[in-house]
Each structure stands twice: as structure tokens, then as C-alpha cells.
Amino acid sequence: MSDDTGDVIDDLFAVIEDRKANLPTDSYTTSLFTHEKGENAVLEKLGEETTELILAAKDDDREELAHESADIVYHLLVLLAMKDMDVDDLRAELAERR
Ligand SMILES: N=c1c2ncn([C@@H]3O[C@H](COP(=O)(O)OP(=O)(O)OP(=O)(O)O)[C@@H](O)[C@H]3O)c2ncn1[C@@H]1O[C@H](COP(=O)(O)O)[C@@H](O)[C@H]1O
Known about the structure:
The protein is an all-alpha fold. It has one domain (3-96): MazG-like (Helix Hairpins), CATH 1.10.287. 72% of the residues lie in helices and 0% in strands. The chain is globular. The protein starts with 7 loop residues before the first helix and ends with a helix. Phosphoribosyl ATP is lined by residues 12, 15, 19, 27-30, 52, 68, 71, 74. Phosphoribosyl ATP (PRT) binds at residues 12, 15, 19, 27-30, 52, 68, 71, 74. Keywords: Amino-acid biosynthesis, ATP-binding, Cytoplasm, Histidine biosynthesis, Hydrolase, Nucleotide-binding. One of its GO terms (molecular function) is ATP binding. This is Phosphoribosyl-ATP pyrophosphatase. It comes from Haloarcula salina.
């Protein structure tokens, strides 16, 4: 794996936290934080992306599987930020299971 993917999740979470703090316009992430549906907007997205992930898996479409996995991880990180959680909470939970 190349070095530029090493901290991609930390970097993405930092961008999400920045969007949450500053709410710039023309930002999809901002639109999730300010959506009239509240957290339901991101929850619905997670549901849709999970369905798409399942279909990609059933089709054995590895490229689509990677695409939908990335969509899910992004929306999951937005949800964690909405709940004032940190990506380290996810890491800690996974580490405890080792
Ligand atoms: N990783 C993501 C990311 N993943 C998914 N999405 C958005 O999530 C939405 C997914 O909804 P849809 O499934 O309806 O969109 P779609 O393109 O039809 O997707 P598929 O049906 O193909 O799965 C799209 O609008 C995507 O642009 C993302 N939007 C932003 N990011 C990251 O967040 C950063 C900040 O983005 P902004 O907040 O927009 O500046 C970006 O630089 C990226 O690094």
C-alpha cells in the first residue's frame, strides 16, 4: 500500500470536523450537518449505501465494492462526528477485540 493512504481516515475525519466547525457553503458534508432531516439524513445514506454494498458483493463487482465501502466509511465518520465521537473511539473498540 502506498504511503499516501496511510492516514487517509484520520485526514478525512479532520476534514469532517472542520466542516462541522465552520459549515462552509458548497460542501456536501456541511449539507449533512445542516440537513432539515437532522441525523436521519446521514442514517438514510448509510442504509442506501449498505444496500448498494450488498448488491456489489452479490455481483462480485470489486470496484463497486470498494466504492460503496468508501461511501459507508465516509458517512460513518460523519455520524461519529455528529455524535461528538472520535475516530479513535472506533479504533479503541476494534483494538479491544484483538
Ligand atoms: N469521502 C467523501 C464522500 N463519499 C461520498 N460522498 C458523497 O456522498 C454522496 C453519496 O450520495 P449518492 O449515493 O446519492 O451519490 P452517488 O454519487 O450517486 O453515489 P453512488 O450511487 O454511486 O454510490 C455523494 O454526493 C458523494 O459526493 C462524499 N463526500 C465527501 N467526501 C470527502 O469529504 C471531503 C469534503 O467534502 P465536502 O464537504 O463536500 O467539501 C471530500 O474532499 C472527500 O474527501
